Amino acid sequence: MMAVRAVNSCSNSILRSASFSCSPPLSAFRCRFDNHFRTLQFRRYWQLGCSRLLKFHCEVRFCVLHGRGRQRSVHSLVDGVIEVLAESMKRKRVRSAIKLTSSGELLADKLVNQPLEKGLLLEFKKDSDRVLLAVAQRPDGKKNWMVHDQNGTISSIKPQQITYIVPGVENFDHTEISTFARKAQDNLDPALLEFAWVELLEKNKSVTPEELAEMIFGSSEPLESYCAHLLLSKDEIYFTVLETKGSRSLYGPRPTTQVEELMHWNLAKEAAEKELEEFVQLLKSTKKMPLHAKPPKSSWLVEEKNRKKVESLEAYAIDAWQNDDQKRTAGMILKAMGMEKTSSSAVHLLINIGYFPVHVNLDLLKSNIRTNHSDEITSAAENLLLESADPDEIDRKDLSHLKVYAIDVDEADELDDALSATRLQDGRLKVWIHVADPAHYVEPGSIVDREAMRRGTSVFLPTGTYPMFPEKLAMKGMSLKQGEICNAVTVSAVLHSDGCIAEYSVDNSIIKPTYMLTYESASELLNLNLEEEIELRLLSEAAILRSQWRRQQGAVDTATIEARIKVTNPEDPEPAINLYVEDQADPAMRLVSEMMILCGEVIATYGSCNNIPLPFRGQPQSNIDISAFAHLPEGPVRSAAFVRIMRAAEIDFRKPVHHGILGVPGYVQFTSPIRRYMDLLAHYQIKAVLRGEAPPFSAGQLEGMASITNMQTRIVKRLCSSSLRYWIIEFMRRQPRERRFRALVLRFIKDRLAALLVVEVGLQASALVSGGTQIGDEVQVQVEEANPRNDVLSLKEAL
């Protein structure tokens, strides 16, 4: 009865189609089965008569496919349908309408290739994504053939490109290819493969496209054969290729369990494709929204299906996909959006939907640098503030009576060091370098210490600071604070009149910082030469003595001009950019620099005398002949020439190494233990000896920890450099095109192409300069192009 209802449904469909078209497509005769006919369970219905229905389909499809009965009336067509139906129902035995025309042939017979001749219709693989129909024209060499394809293109193809030769065709007209292809596509019904699969699986038979055409269409004419080939070649569920020889393939039915798995996989694939389509539509609609209306980044992470896709795009944007699935997902999204499969396309898409800010720091994302501390680390740090007992309290020297100057940039959050000075009765200068004492909070090997080692350093970017220690511990506990009693490690030195060290000491101390000064305000105080700030003048005098002494020891002056940028509201499309240009030859900056070098020399000497393993830093001079650079103007130009020939720094963990560039016999970085882990390691070692204990780390252990820390420090250094350059270029992009910038010629790269230092922004760039321009000359330049995202800055000389 089910088969009868299905046939009746078909006959009704035929009647409806006949009233609208004299030559309806085969799809007009498809039976609209209930869903259970589309499952593997339909096999029991097959036994009830569906095979008769398939035979009826074959006969009707064949008639319509070839245009038979075009002049017949609707009544004659109905009579024909009833006649076929009656004949089918009168059959005394149930037999299958699916017949194997070559079931007894040998495998070799089924795979015999038809020789390629002029006028044959063939299918060939144009590229990895396209298959085209073409008509063979003529041989092209020994093996290749010239063909005329459905797009009207004549090209040469190799034999291995041919995927199918349509049988029964001679002298095919290439102008009819498109019509033939359209008819084939219009009459593809993958559901028919299920009928054939059941029958072939029961009989354990293989099939060729021509045999399948005979089975499901009742004919192996060219069009039917090609339709069967398309069904088999595109099928991913019911059939598999058993063997291929040239353009001929033999197919076999898959096992039932495999078909079930593939159907399940296909359903999942369809669901994924629908999910992807919905996500792409969401992206497109979001792109069209005004900036203020775009959803926040967090909204993309709420639903798991959207979160995975947007995270795939983010990973693709920074070249950090974790697996092929992420890469494939991002590629599909970009393709569906009509964009190239590149990381820059992913970046622009994420910016356009508001997931990334316009000025997203890609280098920060790529570096995988921690920008926040975990709850565990933060909690441990807060406990240190509550529970910390000072193990050095008894031995601390009270220096709170000294006038103490802390000099740093105006936005500094962590104050590591401060300075004091006096003149002794014998006329010699004595200076104190007070360094913050984070080691009285943090013990080596503790959870907070291990996290600091992994970070290696605080990260200072134009858009924000990411401290090595949790902010509360660093700011409230470790940092020096104006007008408050602070624990410190103080290095003092008495200087001879020539600037060399006469006496020194290293002590745990208590200080009370008097002034927190910026470099600018400190320079102003020095210029004012106020009597009440005599200590600051003494510090400046000591710095001058030290600079003169170091130069006598072969030190090289590498002072230059550098930029410092502070960006407010970096998430905005046009955030405010505050640019500061620092001249390292500034009196206040030279003062602080000289005192830091003095402190490093004292610590190196103290470590050597007490046999303490420390990160001793050195740098060979490279046999620099200072006089060879005398023709260059002092300052950035000469410094740049020195830097180009300087050799890399060295570190020894057992004994001091001569530091030729600084002109000191040994040097240890000690003055930034809150922001540099290597400085903190030096504190651990020195403070243990001050307490009468053995240093916690051997030279070998220090070397191992330094290798980890220095690797991270190099990553941070590159990040800071690229971030600063990005914002300088963005600053220059915003300037009026007619603005002129002063630039110093540092050297010539080639012919008239010069390396320049743009003075107003502290950035090195290049440009062509006029003939006759010399190294050290100042020129005027203008911006031709500035694109920070692509790291492009093009300058031209303003004549």
TrEMBL record:
InterPro entries: HTH_RNase_II (IPR056404), NA-bd_OB-fold (IPR012340), RNase_II/R (IPR001900), RNase_II_barrel (IPR056403), RNR_Ribonuclease (IPR050180), WH_RNase_II (IPR057324). SMART domains: RNB. One of its GO terms (cellular component) is P-body. GO terms for biological process: mRNA catabolic process. Residues 396-692 form the RNB domain. It comes from the Eukaryota. GO terms for molecular function: 3'-5'-RNA exonuclease activity; RNA binding. This is Ribonuclease IIic/mitochondrial isoform X1.
